[in-house]
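#struct-help
A.M.: can someone run this one for me? Single chain, 472 residues.
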Amino acid sequence: MKRLTKYIAGAAICVLAVAGAAPFVWMQGNSAMPGLRVNGISVGGMSRDTLAALREESDNRLNTLSLTARYGDVREELAFKDIHVHYEADMEDQILAAGRSGNLVKDWLTRWEAVLTGVALHLHPAYDEQALIGRVRQMARTYGQDAEGSRPVWNADGSVTLTPGRPYLKIDKERLKEAVEAVLRTGEAGEVTIPVTEENNLNLSAEEYKSINAVLGKYTTYYGSNPNRVRNIKIAAGTISGWVVRPGEIFSFNETTGERAPEKGYMDAPVIVNGKAVPGVGGGVCQASSTLFNAAMLAGLTITERTCHFSPVSYVPIGQDATVSFGTLDFCFRNDLKHSIFIYAEADDQSITTWILGNREDGSEAASVGLVSSGMLPFNVVTVIDPSQKEEKIVEEGHPGYHAVIFQSVRWRDGRVREDTFTSWYDPVDTVVTLNKAPKQAKAEKKKSKRDTSKDVAAKKEKQERKAPVAR
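D.P.: on it. Structure tokens below:
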């Protein structure tokens, strides 16, 4: 019995000795600890050379990855290779150091854990911080500029494709950098939300962007070479261009363009006041509103506010103008179509063209705008006395007024019809004759002057006769 007890005790000691030494025996000096996983990959027993090859393979994989930064419809890709995401050269040393801390008890426990359940080690990739900062700054600069609206591309088949455009976004650069770094540390592709503190987005939503594919209405007007007037028209065209009007919304020309003021670049150019051309800031803007009025009618939009000029204008047929004056006269229309519309305007040194773009489902089968009736309104001749006037008579020529009615007719393939009339009254301008004296007074003075002249002639004749020699 004693012999059996000794045998069992000896066996137990051997088992314990083997158990204590086993992890150290299984783990070779220049290979990874058995049961070790690094970033989900089993590396147990791998040599240094094999681990170096694994690092190279992991770096190649990182070069294929990218991170997506989003805000609304904005999407920016950050390629890992552009910010040099990689694993450090000491990756093999870190892996081989597992289970070799120098603490015998700790290493023994770690190695047995690796054998029995496995040990996971996560190594974070490194990256070029300056390259990341530069990329974040570049995004902040790009979206920190004024919003740039979408632009149409005219396709050969008559359809339209819009470019994406760019919103204004004030980006929190530090928060964006921190969010990107958190993804990079995982060593996997990911997505972050761009932290924005201020924005101005004139662009279409992703759904609306796809729906704009057809020209619904288009109109062009031409002008002279007055540089200030041309500049004002270009500014107004650029302001309304890119504007989106969704179903049920009303577009206001004055609200969109704002006050026509010098600080916005508007200059003095002729405007019509009481039938006369006088200098005014923003002169010419009415041509932009009139061009838009005609494009909107041809697109089948509902005109909710429109006023004609004091007198007919040369750049559109009579009755087809729409004057505007900030704070008093506006031009407005409502989008009663099924989809959003996109206003696009271009102005050069000779003309302005405005397009109403939308979905081909809203495109009409036939659209026209024409004159229904017109007539002339007579003017008067008015005499004004101005004693301070040096000239005897000054005439300011007037002109007749006009009455005009135009008809908008739009028909869609599904049977819908829009018909509307627009009446214009252009006031006559009287001819004004300004005299420095009343007619009766002038007549009396003329008679008196004639009598005085006769007396002077008679007196002169008598004087000459007295001086003449007497015939002897």
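A.M.: thanks! Confidence is low (pLDDT under 50) at residues 9-22.
D.P.: also worth noting: DSSP finds eleven helices and 25 strands in the chain.
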